[in-house]
Design a protein that fits this description.
Blueprint lengths: L3 E14 L14 E14 L10 H15 L15 H12 L6 E7 L5 E4 L4
């Protein structure tokens, strides 16, 4: 019987955003930027032949278009990210990766080294 493991791929992107639905005097209402850190997790059994759940190169290939769509952008202008909270960004990434990666188990978005949000899909 094969053991199940969780793979992790990290990437980062620099972008600007503002949060339109918070009070105008809230610091996040103003335009500001982050170096967002994203963790993509994939869970599954270790393949008997390959010895892996998934090729890291395939995971990188799947995430590359998302990085290109987000890097050095004003996130509010991207469809689906009009209110680009960490919560919405993690769901936005999930929705674009899940059709390609059935083993996707979690997407975590960090705005800072101390804050983040993890989305594990609808249950």
């Amino acid at each position: 019987m094969s053991k199940e493991v969780e793979l992790l791929r990290r990437f980062s992107f620099d972008s600007a955003h503002s949060l339109p639905n918070v009070p105008e005097d809230h610091k996040c209402h103003r335009l500001h930027g982050h170096t967002f850190q994203v963790e993509i997790k994939v869970t599954g059994p270790i393949g008997e032949t390959t010895g892996w759940v998934m090729d890291f190169a395939d995971l990188k290939k799947a995430t590359q278009p998302l990085i290109e769509a987000l890097v050095h952008r004003y996130l509010n202008e991207i469809e689906g990210l009009e209110n680009p909270t960490s919560e919405h960004i993690s769901i936005w990434i999930w929705d674009r990766l899940k059709p390609q990666i059935k083993e996707l188990s979690a997407v975590t978005v960090h705005e800072t080294c101390n804050t983040g949000c993890t989305y594990r899909g609808d249950h």
